[in-house]
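Retro notes, structure queue

What went well: the backlog is down to a handful. What didn't: a couple of records were mislabeled last round, so from now on we paste the full input next to the output in the thread. Example, using Secretion system C-terminal sorting domain-containing protein from uncultured Aureispira sp:
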Amino acid sequence: MNDRIFTLVAAFILLASSAINASHLSGAEFHFEHVSGNDYIISLALYRDCNGINVPSTVSVQMESLNCAINNNLTFPLTSGPTVVTSIPVAQTTCLGGVIQGYEEYIYSDTVTFPASCTDWHFSYGSCCRNAAVTNLVNPSSAGLLVESTFNSGVVNNAPIYFIDPIFYGSMGANFSVALGGFDPDGDQLVFSLAAPLDDPSAPIPFVAGLSTAQPLEILPGTAVSFSATTGQLNCVLSTAPQIVVFDVLVEEWRNGQKIATHRRSLQILPINLGGGQMLAPPIVNNLSNGSIVDAYTMEYTSAAQPFSFSMLFNDQDMGDVLTYNAAYSTLETVFPNAQVTSTNPNGNLNDLELSIQIPNPSPSLFSIIIEENNYLQQSFSYEIRAANTTNVHSVETKPVAVRIYPNPVAQTTTFEVRNAVYETLELTVFGMTGQLVSTQTTSSNHVLEFNRGDLPAGIYSFQLRGDAVLVNTGLLQLK
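Corresponding output:
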């Protein structure tokens, strides 16, 4: 952009001022951090525009498991915020008296002890109502905002670390690239997908005519939205029309062929008028050594014992613009602390930026690169580095393990029979309804385990069945 025009078009100003009395929630997401044992710090991040009503001092989060017949209502206190979140100078936003809509982050969190080990924990938070200025949903002011996560407490797990906050700006009529994914601190494989926002767990909010889950925002005619299930990267060319766009991204965590968690992120895009020009397009990746390019978002290394190097060339079509690499907000050097990054401007052109990257000891992970134009609007790009000949979980058909339990209710003994898988060992752990471990039994049989209650008193118990240390089934036992 050669001319920095920070004034929004009049139509957008009218839209943005039409919902003064709404909650003005613009985005939300859960986060899970393991502390020890069954204890987790669970956080809910809420994002609202700076003109919204006051946020509450506490929020109510629903925690339930159908398998374990538990339904709790948790109260999380406000522990952080407000923090202004923006990819443009804060002084230009309404948070500090500017004209471009600004946004704030509020964090609610608490330490939660899982009362039982269950594979189907479901956490949810909902609030009414959405901003009437939203342009891509039908009747947004009467629709709520809902985020949710499912969680398997039978395995130690930390939620993904996302590349960027769920509120981001774009330039009208220009290339738009945003890294909606993240990396997993436990090394779990992540799968991303676009989704319609929810009003309640069973009620997706319809998009306006012409938009859909695959294309939730207005784009220039003749162009398309691309989205990577591997990295969560979204690329498109935004329409020149003013719009405020909300949609969700689903994040699945996979470990050893089993899905152990899902997270729903509620996101918002705000295209603004920057006076014409073109933002940079996705970069060209080349000069690989010790590896190869799989697709636009994925690279493979041949040997983990050898340095893995490559370069990325970014170009802005406006000759007067200056591109810079924002190392502080990129996650490349967080994921790979020993990475060496060199930034140059080929042929002295400041609108061209080349990053030469070397990773001494590569390992599988996702990472992001943040590029700024004239130290102003950020574009984010995400990539996967993986070992050669790796198969992604979303390209493999996985079948749930079928387990037959008979009889249940249990007089003295019952049989667990695995119907469609074979394991060297089976292990059954049984818990009382307050979460205490009361029995552990193992067998070397490859598909049958006989459980003897011993002197356990009558009552309802939860169980976990593992095959070769992998959790394959959970549920309830009734002892008569």
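Agreed that this is the format going forward. Reviewer comment attached to the example: The two ends are 74 Å apart (CA to CA).
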